[in-house]
Input
Amino acid sequence: MLKKRRPTAVMAALLSISLAACGGQPKAEEQPKAPASGDKSPAQADPKFSITAIDFRYGDPPPTSSPGIDMINEKFNVDYKPVFVPNTAFDEKINAVFASGQIPDMIGLMSTDLKNRYNKFAKQGAFLDLEPYINDYPTLKAVPDYIWDSMRVNGKIYAIPQYAPKYQVVPVIRKDWLDKLGLKPPTNYEELKEVALAFTNGDPDGNSKKDTYGIAIGQDINPNFNQGPYWDPDAWYHQDAQGNYIPGIIGEGRREFITMLSELYKQGAMTKDYAILNWGDTNKEFYSGKAGIFIGTPRGMSQDYMNGLLAIHPEAEFIHLEPFEDPYGNKGLTAGAGYNGLTVLSAKLEDEPEKLKKVLEMIDFGRKFYPQDQKNEKNADFDWWSGKVGSGYVMQDGVPVFNENFGRDGLGPSTYYVDNSSWVPQDSDNVYSITYQTKQLVDLVAAIETMYKDMKLYINPINGLESPTDNEKGAELKKYVMDEQVKMIAGTRPVSDWDKLVQEYMDKGGAQIVQEYNANIKEKDPKALFK
Output
């Protein structure tokens, strides 16, 4: 459902003609024509650089030859060669790239790479120090200092954060199924469990067949369906007996959630093969009309997926859930970090300043923000970025509607950018709901946007902090805990082992991670971190 929205330099040879070698001046009629004012002679022309990139995409990568690529090459006078890898294969591919030592000019990394892959290779000198260039480019200069500080490794900045609103995904439920079964939207996890069971054992789609179930979920227990930082596996909200913050993945809220899933799994009320189901196939569980509970978000919903579901169930309606009240009396969600993904540049570009300038120029253009009233063909930059009106998009009621094959056929430059997210001054400057066409999707997104306007967001206290042990062991340790929780859901390890699992986390390096983060956390009251 969610889209992502993103070393070898080849210098062009300069033609040099020596008249002296020809034994004198050419005849008058052979005199070369002087360049017009403002034109560059062949020897002065901008060199055409080959620019390489690698990035991940959710879903099928775009074609390697397309109008979008041609437009980029023409506008910037480059030979742009991006490689896009499905997100499920990205880890293996990017590891091979780094192992080879042939670092592309631009690399898109996931936000989850910040504390491991990014940190590791930045320290090894693989990436360019970007701080000297930040003030030269408007969209880089606009990034708040606290976000730049999150990118620092040994005091230097090696990554450009890709914009993401503070919005998180929220649970979405088939309202027509609730109405069919006479149910109300759940307000806590016990009620959510009962709805999931009703969707499984009742007949919410009215076809007299037992072919529906509750929650669509895939590998890595994704989505995590957290209804506040109390249940968020990535939020440091819970505190131990000494008052130290601990990661949510071993917190009491996570225990509650895993317990619920283990009960639903036994009764067939969640995706059966969740442990191996990739993200695309998890989406299909919901958008094929099988499951009644999934997730939604203002930015990045798939119009195609929604159209597919409505073709099957034209009467489908959707609602989002409000955050649940936690045991501390708080209602709200964890604030996003303000970025989603990183763009890093090869350190070798420092030796090619003209090429580096071209790369940064391309990046800065792709991050340009267009207010809603400028998203039309009258704005030449937006029109180009969007593949030109009549080809990449059409205007309907003052809103650009993109060609349904825009990404698949590579109709516009935006498809091929590592960072194709505008850096928005304020989250509220974007109104995502009007960018969709189907009323059900417009209404759902508008409702989520409205909810977020007045919602309190929890600021994760470890944002911008570093734990050397987390950098070294965190990803592996989190995977271990996640794998054990997968076993608990499936029943191959009892949920009653929870305290034992927490101790295993601590013994394998978690205690050191907790200590290192808490040494730098000044705030000791979780309630005070709701803003």
Notes: Confidence is low (pLDDT under 50) at residues 1-43. The two ends are 29 Å apart (CA to CA). The first helix runs from residue 67 to 76. The chain is about 35% helix and 15% strand.
